[in-house]
Each structure stands twice: as structure tokens, then as C-alpha cells.
Amino acid sequence: METPTLANPETVHQDSVALYSKGGRTFSLLFTRWMDTNGWSHPTMVRLARAALGDIGWLHSSQISGLRHNGLESPGPRTFIAIAQLNAYIHRYATTKRLIPGTESSKDYHVAYAITENDQPPAAGWWFEVFCGLRIPQDIDLREAFFSDAQATTISTNWGALIRKLLRDQDLDLITDLDRILRDSYPAKDFDRLARLRQVIQNQYTWTPDELSLELPALTAFTSELGGPVHESELLALLQS
Fold first, then answer.
1. Most buried of 42, 46, 119, 156 (most Cβ within 10 A)?
2. CA 235 – CA 212 distance, rounded (Å)
3. Angle at Cα 129 formed by Cα 125 and Cα 133, nearest 5°?
4. pLDDT by residue (tens digit) across 6-22?
5. Is the dihedral of CA 45, 48, 54, 55 positive or negative?
6. pTM for this prediction
7. What is the DSSP string of 65-110?
8. Which residues of the chain have pLDDT under 50?
9. How many beta carbons lie within 10 A of that of residue 82, not counting itself?
10. DSSP state, 186?
11. Eight-state DSSP code of residue 121
12. From residue 85, how far is each of 41, 69, 146, 230 by CA, in Å?
């Protein structure tokens, strides 16, 4: 019988650390794009996840923030169970129109989409593997180099100009009306993201490629609320022209 080749523990350690680091970033992109495209605030997602688990609170706002910003180094298994369960119920509603148990209407998820793999909602283990860098999602585009530095700068500048134009077209004031509009129409409520958003609108900041990749679903939703392009591809085409 052939003697099995033993793995070099130093190589295994280096590979594992690199994969884990990359997995956290991949999960951040996946989780943020899912949440923002569905227009969920932190409280909305917490509430829906709690309903999906039969009124059990296994997903909290602090965990959501950590996952979005790739700042949660070791989430527990219950976190992945909560995410997988909510995602499965979103998929069930999208395909059968059956409400999430414990919700009286589909107000918070009637246009939501589910993360799928081979057109099916994956189990908790799949989400764990993505987080650990052991799996790359196949049904959603999470290209590592989504934008170049130059593209991110151009898109940031053009998006700020577009928002200022849309505000003027509706006789809205950049100073007196902006906070209310952001509160009513921008899906993400993170303080730092809102601060950068205001700076972009005022032509004082440009997003990095990574920041823009995370922001794009929320930017699309916000821009469409003001009368701009409805679809992400249309918005990008306009901003890059």
C-alpha cells in the first residue's frame, strides 16, 4: 500500500490564513449586496431573521455591521443558521408567495431576492464555507477587481453631479432637504457610509473601488427614488459615459 503524503503544516497554515482572510471579504461583498439590494435596514433584517427562526434572536445589529464591514472575525454557528433560514424563506416567498412565518405582510420583502446556488437557497454550511474562503458563490458576480481606481473616481464624481441635478429638477435644496431624503430613501443607515455619501454628493470625496462595490446596490435604489435609472446596469452605463 502506498504511504500517504503528509501535508506540510506550515503550508497548510499559510493557505488557511490566506483563504480565511479572502473569505471574509467575499462574505462582506455577498452579504452587503444582498442586504442593500433588498433595501433592508439593520432593524428590518434583525426583525425578519427573528421571524424566520420562530421568534428567536440569533442575528443582531452588531453582527450585521461586523459582517458588512468584514470586521467580525469569528461569528458563531447560530449567525449562519439565522442567515440561511431567512434566505430560504425569502426564496420560498419569491417562488410561492408564502409569507415568512410570524409576519403579517410581505411589506419588507415583497421584492426581495434570495442568494442561490444552482437556483436553490444554500444551507448554513454553505454560508460558513463562503466566510472561511472555502467556497466562491457561483450565482452572483463578486469579481475581486470590480472597479479600477480611475473608474471609481469617475463614477463617484458623475454620481454626485447626477444627484445634484435630480435634486434641482425636483426643486429640492442640497442643504435643507438632503438629510430628510437620505433618511427616507437611502437603504443603508451606517453613520460612516452616510457621511461619505454626503461628501460625494458635495464633490468632496471619491469612493475607493471596494467602497463603490459595496455601495452600488444602495446607490441604485437611492438614485431611482429620485427619478434616476432603476437598474444597476443602466446607472453604471450613464455614469461611465
1. 156
2. 13
3. 175
4. 445 554 455 788 888 88
5. positive
6. 0.64
7. HHHHTT--SS--HHHHHHHHHHHHHHHHHHHH-PPPTT-S--TTTT
8. 1-7, 11-12, 144-145
9. 27
10. -
11. P
12. 18, 22, 29, 29
